[in-house]
Design a protein that fits this description.
By secondary structure, the chain is α/β, with parallel strands linked by helices. The protein folds into two domains: about 190 residues, Rossmann fold, CATH 3.40.50.2000; about 180 residues, 3-Layer(aba) Sandwich (Rossmann fold), CATH 3.40.50.2000. Helices cover about 40% and strands about 15% of the residues. The chain has a six-stranded parallel sheet, with helices on both faces. The longest helix is centred in the N-terminal third of the chain and has 15 residues.
Length: about 375
């Protein structure tokens, strides 16, 4: 069968899925644009390009390079580009990757105009409230698809709440490249990495990994660590809140190291140096793939109850802990609980590694293939 994919631009977490699908079907990925270093770096505070291959291993085409500027004036060109690509490829089904970028509306419109069955995989959930108008919009958007691909429990509930029937849902778990992260982390020199980043050799090291932006609330980790003896914080990331986090660490006497932005080939090294991931985000963290990354490297995770992956990946006391969002004392209690018991983080990390094995590219692709097979003979 022929599967077309509609995407705004190459994403490091999607490319492995497209490569896997290319081994199971006749695939063509249509990108609106390829981002430059400045566009790629939005929110990170640094211009960069990902240092892992994002375009290898599957056929692809770029249909509207000028759409990278996100202005509405580029949408007609994007629509025409997607439309021409779909007409030439003549897919049996079309796989859409959400509507997170304006060009995706052009791609969805082109997919609908093609008349071919459509699949949707996105991160949305019900963890943040929506206005009545937004709920109407979401229901209308979901009515455009013949099948959806839930990435986890919260995402599945979102689809159900907006009228998608169970028989039109095909699980496609959210994943990262487990083997690459595990192998790079396992092969790293932990002592050398700790020395490089100024982490005391005998400290229990908590890790914050990600953009330093409001939705992730990185300063909450510093606040919760105040007074926790023998603990250190490694911050792997950059962004607009870096100065605030530095000031908070200094004011509260929290040992803290800043690794700065780490590209894909380097980020497993941060997990190798650390003992436990902490993600105190609000509901803007619709999944939290850093949790997948940490668990693939054998680390447990402590997350807020607004993080989308919580109920899938955080088994209380086994693979990590959760705490009520914004409740710094509750977070501090969880940090103390895991840091104060020798060997606990290691045991929980081993359980986390076993759990995350199910969140693989193979299982994600299986869901897409199953959905494609189900809808190709049924368009309503």
């Amino acid at each position: 069968m022929k599967l077309a994919v509609i995407a705004s631009h190459p994403v490091q977490y999607q490319a492995p899925l497209f490569r896997e699908l290319a081994g199971r079907a006749d695939v063509m990925v249509f990108y609106a644009y390829l981002p430059g270093a400045n566009t790629q770096g939005e929110g990170f505070g640094v211009d960069f390009q990902w240092d892992v291959p994002l375009l290898d291993g599957y056929p692809h085409a770029v249909v509207a390079q000028g759409a990278a500027d996100r202005t509405s004036s580029t949408l007609p060109a994007a629509f025409l580009g997607f439309r021409r690509g779909l007409s030439a490829f003549r897919p049996d089904a079309i796989f859409c990757t959400g509507w997170h970028h304006p060009t995706m509306f052009a791609g969805i419109a082109a997919a609908v105009a093609s008349g071919r069955p459509r699949l949707l995989r996105c991160e949305a959930n019900l963890l943040r409230p929506r206005s009545a108008g937004a709920r109407i919009f979401h229901r209308a958007m979901l009515s455009l698809y013949h099948a959806v691909l839930p990435i986890g429990a919260a995402n599945r509930r979102y689809f159900s709440a907006f009228g998608v029937r169970d028989d039109r849902m095909f699980d496609s778990p959210y994943f990262i490249e487990n083997a690459r992260f595990a192998e790079t982390s396992a092969g790293a020199d932990r002592a050398a990495l700790r020395s490089r980043w100024g982490i005391p050799a005998d400290a229990f090291c908590f890790l914050f990994s990600g953009k330093l932006v409001e939705k992730k609330h990185p300063a909450a980790v510093v606040e919760a660590m105040a007074g926790l003896a023998g603990a250190h914080l490694l911050v792997a990331g950059s962004g607009e809140l870096e100065d605030r986090v530095r000031a908070a660490a200094l004011a509260r006497g929290v040992g803290c190291s800043f690794a700065g932005f780490l590209n894909q080939s380097e980020i497993p090294l941060a997990y190798a140096a650390a003992d436990c991931l902490v993600l105190p985000s609000d509901a803007g963290e619709t999944w939290g793939l850093v949790v997948n990354e940490a668990m693939a490297c054998g680390l447990p995770a402590i997350v807020s109850d607004r993080v989308g992956c919580r109920e899938d990946l955080v088994v209380e006391g086994e693979t990590g802990f959760s705490f009520p969002f914004r409740n710094v004392p509750a977070l501090a209690e969880k940090l103390r609980a895991i840091a104060s018991v020798p060997g606990l983080a290691s045991r929980m990390g081993a359980s986390a590694r076993m759990l995350i094995a199910r969140y693989s590219v193979g299982n994600a692709a299986e869901g897409v293939v199953s959905a494609m097979g189900a809808v190709c003979g049924r368009e309503n």
